[in-house]
Amino acid sequence: MHLPPTPRTPRTIQLLRWIFTPMSYMDECASKYGEIYSLNLRPDYPAVLTSNPDALQTILTSDTKELSSPGKLNQIFIPILGTQSLITASGKQHQRKRQLVMPALHGERMRAYADIINQVTDEVISKLEIGAAFSIRNVTQTITLKIIMQAVFGLHDSPRAIELERLLNNILESTSSPLSLAGVTFPILGKVLGSLNPAHDFETLLQQSDKIIYEEIQERRNNADSERVDILSLLMLARDEDGQAMTNVELRDELMTLLTAGHETTATALAWAVYFIYKNENVKTKLLDELNSLGKNPDSNTIFKLPYLTAVCNETLRIYPVALTTFPRQVEKPISLCGYNLEPGTLVYGSIYDLHRRQDLYPNPDEFKPERFLERQYSAYEFLPFGGGARRCIGLAFAQFEMKLVLAKILTSYQLELLTQNKVNPKRRGLVSAPDQPIRFNYKGALS
To answer: Residue 112 — φ and ψ, nearest 5°?
Structure first.
């Protein structure tokens, strides 16, 4: 097999760099090898990463032909999400789950979530102390977790909701450190670290959160209410082509998928967006002009369609994508990518991070410039912050809707001042990315 070029360092070194400093490692590899390279990350399969749009189109449209996207490749998610999650399922099971979950996160359902998004944003921001400094990511994480709790469960500050929020926060914090990821990758390291491993009490936290989720599911089964429009109620009513409903275990795993993946990633994207907006005065001015042109109490769909707000969100997701790569694909039949013939068993990743930094697509990629998305229409293989193909993020529409409404609410209702003046870079946070330091703001109160 003729693999693309790879660093000559031992596998353990490559793996450690991938875990602890993935962005600088990808920058280095892209600079040295170009738009396709391979990394020796697993003992069983070589991994190929590419940022070539044509190759990405081949990868993301060949999910059932030369390439597959089996759930077994996503086993690292099983400890949190379980074996019945959309992310860890394969083939027909994966298709069935997408069909069951998709309606709750798209179309007219979005309108029902608009009030929740606005109310929660107001509730969280207005509790900040005037004149006090705060970390924007802590605030956006609180906002997105409360939103997803209400959208998913329809629970608003009940004892059960408050306890589940606390547990989910602790679960995500315990798995967010590269050290905890290293402990999973190198089990012997996890044992050596013992109680020093950030994830040492993960199992206990998970059992406690599962207990609450199963109690909520059982209570809904005992007291069915067809009037409820929260996601759990919709999933319980959903039926597949054979008329089958989701089991309790399936419901639990999909809920955990939505609760964790559905707020952690959006919280990071929102934190970056607020940072870049307040760091670039001209961006903030243009955005406020656009938002203020709508008058009082604009319709949520009108906000969602605003061109400059959309461009700001897209540029945020481009410059520091939360997910660094697509979900892996496995070569099933020999396939050629960028002149390299890949044999069955090879793992192929679309490198979202490298793609979004291509000079030919995004000149001066380190510059935050929303205008790129007004001056040019990018294809689904030139800009893919939510991945693509059969494994494209199912919460894409919800995340974009939430991001835009939260930003609109903050900008038009509150006064914030950016305090962090030094450069903020991305770093690994668990399986995704986040700012490498707290981005601090001063809360100056509500706008009159």
So the answer is: -65, -25
Parts of the chain with a pLDDT under 70: 1, 62-64, 174-200, 431, 448
- Long-range contact pairs involving 280-287 (C-beta distance under 8 Å, separation at least 24): 280/368, 283/312, 283/368, 283/370, 284/411, 287/312, 287/407, 287/411
What value, to the nearest 5°, has the Cα angle with vertex 197 and ends 195 and 203? 80
Residue 330, domain member (yes or no): yes
CA 429 to each of CA 322, 405, 410, 432: distance values in angstroms, whole numbers, following the listed order: 9, 25, 25, 5
Q: Is residue 365 part of a domain?
A: yes
How many helices (DSSP H) and strands (DSSP E) are in the chain?
19, 12
Q: Does residue 3 sit within a domain? A: no
> Please, are residues 35 and 299 in contact by the beta-carbon 8 Å criterion?
no
Residues 6+ apart with CB under 8 A from 427: 23, 433, 434, 435, 436
Q: How far apart (Å, rounded) are the C-alpha atoms in residues 122 and 142?
A: 12
pLDDT for 189: 45
Domain annotation covers residue 5 = no
**Torsion from C-alpha of 332, 337, 341, 343, nearest 10 degrees:** -20
Q: Is 130 exposed, middle or buried (0-12, 13-18, 19+ CB in 10 A)?
A: exposed
CATH number, domain containing residue 194: 1.10.630.10
Q: Look at the alpha carbons of 409, 411, 417, 419 in this order and tell me if their dihedral is positive or negative.
A: positive
Dihedrals phi, psi of 339, to nearest 5 degrees: 85, 0
Tokens 């559905």 belong to residue: 262
Looking at the DSSP assignment, which residues form a beta bridge with residue 335? 342
Domain count, the chain: 1
pLDDT value at residue 230: 83
Buried residues in 137-159 as b, exposed as e (16+ CB within 10 A): bebbbbbbbbbbbbbbbbbeeee
For residue 227, give the nearest of 215, 237, 217 by alpha carbon: 237
What single string gives the DSSP state of each residue in 272-338?
A: HHHHHHHH-HHHHHHHHHHHHTT-SS--HHHHHT-HHHHHHHHHHHHHS-SSSBPPPEEESS-EEET
How far is it, in rounded angstroms, from Cα 296 to Cα 291? 10
Which residue type sits at 273? A
Q: Tens digits of per-residue pLDDT, 165-186? A: 888 888 777 666 555 554 455 4
Question: Average pLDDT of the chain?
Answer: 87
Q: 267: domain range? A: 11-446
**Looking at the DSSP assignment, which residues form a beta bridge with residue 349?**
49
SS (HEC) of 18-51: HHHCHHHHHHHHHHHHCCEEEECCCCCCCEEEEC
